[in-house]
Amino acid sequence: MPVAEIHELTDGPNRRPRLPAKSRVLETTADGPASAILQELYSATARTARAAAASTLAAYVQKNGLRTLVVDAILEDLTRAVKGKVVAEREGAIAAFDELFRKLAKAGADPYLVPLLPVVLDRLQESGKTASIADNAEKAAKQLCRLTPPELAPKTIEQLFEVIEGNYKWKSKACALQLLATFGASAKDQVAERLGEYVPRLTASMRDTKSEIASQAEKTGIALCHVLTNPDIQPFVPDLVKCMADPTTVPAAIKRLSSTVWVREVDGPTLAVVAPLLTRALGERGNIVQRQSVVLITNLFKLVRSSDLAALHAPAVLPGIERIIESAAFPEIRAFAEEAKKAVDASKEGAQVPAVDHLSEAAEDEKKAFTETQGLVAKASGEKPDAFADQALSYVAYAISHLTRKRQFDEKDWRESYVGPYLEPLVGKASAESLSVELLKRWMAIDKSRMQVDQEDDDDEEGEIVTDLPFSLAYGGLLLLNHTTLKLRRGHRYGICGANGCGKSTLLKAINRKQIDNFPQHVKAAYVEHDIDGDESGITVCGLMLEEPRIEVDEKEIRKTLLELGFDEERQDVPINSLSGGWKMRVALCRAILMKVDLMLLDEPTNHLDTKSVNWLQDFLNAQSHITCMIVSHDSGFLDAVCTNIIHYQKKQLVYYKGNLAKFVEKWPAGKAYYTLSDSVVKFTFPAPGSLMGVRSQTRAILKMTNCTFTYPGAKKPQLQNVSCAVSLSSRVGIVGPNGAGKSTLIKLLTGETVPDEGKVEKHPNLRVAYVAQHAFHHIEEHLEKTAMQYIQWRYQDGVDKEQAAKATRAMTPEEIELMKTPIVGRTGESRFLERIVGRQKLKKSYSYEIKWQNLQHKFNAWLPRERLIELGFSKLVQEFDDFEASREGAGSREMSGKLVRKHLEDVGLDGDIAEYNEMKGLSGGQKVKVVIAAAMWAKPQVLILDEPTNFLDRDALGGLAVGIREWTGAFLCISHNQEFVGALCPEIWNVESGMLTHKGKAAVAEDAFDSQPPTPGTQTPAVSTPALTTPAGSTPAMSTPVGSGDEARAASTIAGAEMAFKASKGRKKMSRKQMKEREERRRLRTLAFLSNSIPGAVREPDTDSDEDVDGKTLRSTQKKAKGNLTPSTIIKKQSEVETAPTAPRSTF
């Protein structure tokens, strides 16, 4: 407040006329105590006397109240004295200010003292004999800056800017800049909100000719910018500040910022500081700066969560972007600019129009709060507030407006910091506290009306109210729920719905951990999870209940409850780790019942449960009339079956709807997303599967099991018995059955993870299978310190899949190791010992393999047919090399550059920055599943097998996965209890129960399960697809070939023990020396004929290896083989020679 305003606070008749400067006499209303104290203060010559007088003055104000500062004209006279020419009076006034600021250092005095800050700082110009005045002035200014509470700090900061931007001496400005820097720590949030305003106001000081001011201004700018919470920008704070002082450094700063990887959320303060720099950079003419600027804008606005925030800052950059789109010289820059415009437009989509500036909105509330508070004070005091009261009420109104804007309604803060202390000098302490509470209630009601979401009245519903309390919920720095209500009734089952990441699971965990403010202590809550902690995995079911401290019943009652939940006497004493997912869920429910909870919190309860267990869980929950349930689930059928109410996240509020999910969708049509599978949010795109040699039919069996039996070690009966099945390229199979029936075991046998005790598993030698296990994390649990990109690059860095080596079928048994020591006798009678297989080439309808012998050089390698190697017992070595070659054809054909790996991970719905920079140990369950799927699909497999893929994927990701699989052209097998997912993708069902496999035949897929329909028949498949594999998009997948059919019989090898045989492409034979000499002779004669040709312009007949006619016989052309195949390139031969040529040049052993 300017000094002129202080004069206005005094009553006119009580002010005495100003005396001449030579006769400085106290100007007060009367010769009262204040007059005598001030006169003693001005006349004191010793420092101790001045300090005593100043202390007396401060005590007088403390005793008689703040109004004496104005009524007795204390502030007015001290201001006159400190600006006067009499040294003693200046010294006394500064001493008085210092003492007043310290003694009145509490909220409530700052409306009258803070306006004195420029006056005090002006005294820093003192020097020489009066340097002590400057020292005391600096101390007083520092004390004054500590008066105001954080939310009112902007009031003090404005007084400092009055000095910084005004016509003050350099020492005053430098001190003001130092004091301003301190607010970066004391009022961090308030400075952060206004950082975009404060830092640019320092620009003039940074360019000041006085080096002390310029240097301090730059330091202050850096100090203020340290309130930024975004770690990505913190290293560049000095660069940002330097750009304001020196615009020529803008290109260098933009270069550094554009090369930074932005992964954290971009908040308001970060955008406020960077936006002015971007605006200037967009105006640069250099092509490099323009390109870097638009790239930086793209990266920043993609990370802005608030559409209103993006809309507020978009006008600063959009004109520059549009100018570059229209006028940039290079198409590349224009393309980058268009991407930047799309990013900005997308980030502000859904924002209010016009853009909302919440600080400006608070100004309207401030006017309303001022008028309202005036009325309350007038009513309480019985008189209209005067100028003295209005000064305090202006601070109260300012605080109320900004506290309401931030929705900070803590009663203690309002009563003790922001409202009560300012009203106390006007109406007394008791009335001030009551008015504070009344104002709090009024503005909470205003806020609630603004944030009100229409919802149904539940007063007519049955059931005792378990809890009905207002609360807010935050996770980290993100506000999830803001001043909403948790209202639950006994016996009701609430399904919680909302967008991904809105905080559904966080709410359940916060309730369980008692992190909800004012949550009733008498309400017992239990978080029900289907899995048991590792330290509990070794104990029995009954033992777990007995060791639970929250269960206060005896063993007899425990066993009785377990029996009611289906646990017979034998199962009550089995180890928990031997139970399936469904029985583990029953254990968790039993524990909650025995704890006698009022509130049961279920997070994805149907994960890992078969249909029978889900039906049991539905019946169990529906029968609980005294337990309230809160359920988070992506299973829409389950929510329909059990929910009596739906709680929906809307605008950071909990909105309650009566009825199940279907009733909710009728009232909220956007909720249809919980019933359909859509890739509108997360999109999965899988690479086209590679071709398979000899497979020209989509229904040809490429993977099959025949009469397989498998028993786990120690088990009394087989897990699978006499099981047969087959998979073709067109297979879309859903594998269903009860928990523990052997579904996962069946898949492990098919993929080679385990070996059958009886029967055989056969597959195409070049087949590549992508398998994601039920507990998907086991694929990456040894690599959690790597990023997703690093994991894929490690796994395929040699061009082959390292996961293959870990399979049980690749482990050599002692018998097989001993077999390696058995000599192989050749046709000549020579005995050799096999070391390893190093090559493969086609041999008729099968393969021959190049063998490296022990203790012999490579020149002695020999080629042996596949059938002989298998007959000799080396089937694992043959299969291992087949997998090696298949992997080379898939992963080996792909470049392992970071850019391509990142793009591959983005294609399965994982954010690119997370994939490249975040270690996998910090990823969520859904993100880890995406990494595993992406890694499995890198090798371009022909078969994808997913075991319970819905367990860790949210609704959006599940929809993207379903659409991605629907559009993929390879074979697909899926184990899942999610009938919606299986029914939408799998027309063929394999039912596994009691160790037996039953083929349930074909069924039409549920096309209505998708939000979007598949392409119409005849749509072209992607160009990268292999024609031989491509199924017309949208067509119904062809039937798998039944086991034992004629097709499979024809596919089977005629050699006992061999895998399925596939017809190889006809090979090219190596030319003999005679043929090569004949070819050279033909070429020589052709050259001589050309040279002897006298006809001008004659063209020489070219040398070529294409079909040539020699002696009336057509020779076959050579063809370059794929990289990695060890078969020599074919050279032209006569047809008769092709038929009689030796099969393998080195298979003479």
From TrEMBL:
One GO CC annotation: cytoplasm
Compositionally biased spans, kind Basic residues: 1065-1074
SMART domains (UniProt xref): AAA (SM00382), CHROMO (SM00298)
Localization annotation: Cytoplasm
Keywords (A to Z) from UniProt: ATP-binding, Cytoplasm, Elongation factor, Hydrolase, Nucleotide-binding, Protein biosynthesis, Repeat, RNA-binding
Segments forming domain Chromo: 832-893
UniProt xrefs under SUPFAM superfamilies: ARM repeat, Chromo domain-like, P-loop containing nucleoside triphosphate hydrolases
Pathway annotation from the record: Protein biosynthesis; polypeptide chain elongation
UniProt family annotation: Belongs to the ABC transporter superfamily. ABCF family. EF3 subfamily.
Protein name according to UniProt: BQ5605_C023g09700 protein
Organism: Microbotryum silenes-dioicae
Source species taxonomy: Eukaryota, Fungi, Dikarya, Basidiomycota, Pucciniomycotina
